[in-house]
Amino acid sequence: MFQYLISSIVRVYKKHGLKMLVILGFEYFLLELSRFFPFIVKFFTPRLFAVSIEPTNACNLRCQICYSQNPETFKARNKGYMDWETYKNCIDELSSLDYPVSLGLNFGGESLLHPKFCDMVSYAKSKGISQISFNTNGMLLSENIIKNLVENKVSKITISLDGTKEKHESSRIGSDYDTVEKNILNLKRLRGNSLSPKIFVNLIEYDQSIEEIDEFINYWINIVDSVAISSCISENLQIMNTEKFFQGNKTIKKHYCHWPFYYLSILWNGDVTSCCHEIGGRIFLGNVVKSKIMDIWKSNKYKEFRREAITNNFSVSSPCHKCNAWNTEFVSKKLEYNDDIDLEFLKISKIYKKKN
Predict the structure, then answer these.
(1) Over pLDDT 70: what percentage of the chain?
(2) For 76-95, how does the pLDDT look when each residue is reduced to its tens digit (9 = 90+)?
(3) Which terminal CB of the chain, N or C, has fewer other CB atoms within 10 Å?
């Protein structure tokens, strides 16, 4: 636990400097105090450091492991694309804050389907938002899109692949492994010697064998910047196959869910929800078409949600009631995977990087 705390302090200092480290240290003290005196969360609002904006919840694939395929989960969500003015207003507000905000341009669909996706990236960059990342299935990663991403120095692109060609195409219906691989290689070529964007490939671990995963890591680690192996999350926000995924590696049990204290998600229609796992949009905390982002973040409704989070006392009807994705995570620590590759545990993912 002590090592985890020290590594967290170092990360914040490197990213935000001493002043923000002191501010966040005080906020962390208040949050820990709130575990014993929950009423405290109603009297202060933590800083909003990370926002996901959903360009669209439409997708060009039908992935078997994605619970968006369950009509019961998504019966209340219509498919749609974020309006340009709504997006601009969000970026204008986030860029006006007196501290940096990380922007994720994805949520419940394939972001590259949005006809103005490149304009979204360019506009956010023009307003001074430097940390921009997104996930994609890689099928639509054309040369023109790649050039825009490289020109705008997008921070990170994570491309989903699920193992071998056969395994990937049987899981992600509609995907073509060879096309995705070609697009990744093209992204690396067009990036050249630049460090931006960082290229991650991400495998969702479900029924792959250990040998298949090792083969995947050892192949892609020589091509991309990092390989991520992530846990599979069910529609009930449960980590699936926990024993297999954690494999006896050291974990910590968190006392409360941290997501409501630094992050929110904005769906394509402006609805605000709580975390990146809740792609069903079942937790409604406001709408940015009707209210400012920070007014929602500071609202009594959000404060009550934080009180439920810090006491781990969600209502039975809440999707958060059964969630275990928040309370178990790896200790953030670098280990040696083999002579050439380092392994870092980060939240509920395993990140593999080539040694320098």
Answers:
(1) 80
(2) 578 899 999 999 999 999 99
(3) C
Long-range contacts for 223-226 (Cβ within 8 Å, ≥24 apart)? Answer: 223/184, 223/185, 223/188, 224/184, 224/188, 224/199, 224/200, 225/198, 225/199, 225/200, 225/353, 226/198, 226/199, 226/200, 226/351, 226/352, 226/353
**Separation of first and last alpha carbons in the chain:** 28
Name the CA radius of gyration of the chain, rounded: 20
pLDDT tens digits, 193-250? 888 899 999 988 877 777 888 889 889 999 999 998 887 776 767 666 665 666 655 5
Domain boundaries, the chain: 1-36, 47-245+255-334
DSSP 56-116: BS--S-EETT-GGG-TTTSTT----B--HHHHHHHHHHHHTSSS--EEE--SSS-GGGSTT
Separation CA 102–CA 112 (nearest Å) = 19
Please determine, for residue 139, whether its predicted confidence score (pLDDT) is greater than 90.
yes
pLDDT of residue 2: 42
pLDDT at 30: 82
The closest alpha carbon to 327, from 249, 239, 245, 254, belongs to 254
- Please give the C-alpha separations between residue 262 and each of 24, 51, 147, 275, 296, in angstroms, as whole numbers: 11, 9, 32, 10, 13
Q: Decide which of 5 and 261 is more confident.
A: 261
Six token digits for residue 92:
């204008």
Beta bridge partners of 352: 227, 343
Alpha-carbon distance of 141 to 138, in angstroms, equals: 5
Instruction: Provide the residue type at 247 as one letter.
Output: Q
Query: 43, 44, 67: which is closest to 57 by C-alpha?
Result: 67
